[in-house]
Write the structure tokens for this entry.
Amino acid sequence: MRLTGLQKVLWAGAGIALLAYGVLMVLPNRAPVSVTEADFRPIFSLPDAEGLVRTPSEFAGKHLLVFFGFTNCPDVCPTTLTEIAQVMDELGSDGDRVQPLFISIDPERDRRLGLAEFTSAFHPSIIGLAGDETQSRAAADSFRIYYARENDSAAPDGYTMSHSPALYLIGPKGDWLRQFSYGTPAADILADLQSRL
Amino acid sequence: MKPLILSIFLTLSASPVLACETFGLGNLTIEQAWTRATIGTGRPAVFYVEITNSGDSDDALIGITTPAAGMPMLHETIITEGVASMAHVKSVPVPAGQTVRLAPGGYHGMLMGLTTALKEGENFPVTLTFQAAGAVTIDVEVLSLREDGATCEHAAQ
């Protein structure tokens, strides 16, 4: 059987479409995008515990240590916030040039449970931010991180959150510097920060 | 009434003497049981412990109960492709000749429905049930909210 020119084009098109579909199905849709761009500036516009809207511009000149989490999280979040607290203690007076931020991915419940009492229990320097769903999602998208609500009848309020547990470092000009993956020892984070300050 | 009675019990049982106590059950040794202090009772608490099986046969931790929480469960933090999620686990394997740690970022007990706030320096009982060895009640130390691991190793030296 000989194919006409048009048939060849159609078959080629079908092949490409199938291939593209295959690639899309294989690509992990949960994985956060790896960040390689040199000039990547995450943004956020989120209210703190008092309702005051905070944006990156007010922290210009400081390094930001940013963690996305939720206060109902008993394992990963306290562990990372504890590390942040240790780093801030160790930095001493240099701590003035580092601002830790806890951005809630479960903002409604976190505001109800108490955002400030949670963050301050770890370290007074940590600012907790909790917007509405749209603001939180926009901030997470800007940092290119993943979070999702997962229904779980056995969990408190019937749901829990899955999320990217890394700690993100933003430079004094608002530029994304690096991430510290979950479990990075506080001493390593401290050493990295001290080399930059 | 129950929370009041429990909080009195917790206060009375607060004793540094119990720090880092080791508990035995057959071939199992259970130690370094700790939790972080909680802010009130609104959020779930965590439970960490170390279990060593010095016997020849495998065992498994199949459940935990405590008067401090209405709904204690075994959980595992799973980090895959950069995303952390928590999953219930029916049991935590305690293979023969091995030590299993319920520790930050892995297996842990999740204490939901706290009946009282867990205060630093206090202790409370948790009953561990094993598939083969049966049940044992241990004392769990409440450490600072800012604690990242049991401090027993240092205290013992």
About this structure: The two ends of chain B are 41 Å apart (CA to CA). Chain B has one domain: 2-145. Confidence is low (pLDDT under 50) at residues 11-18 of chain B.
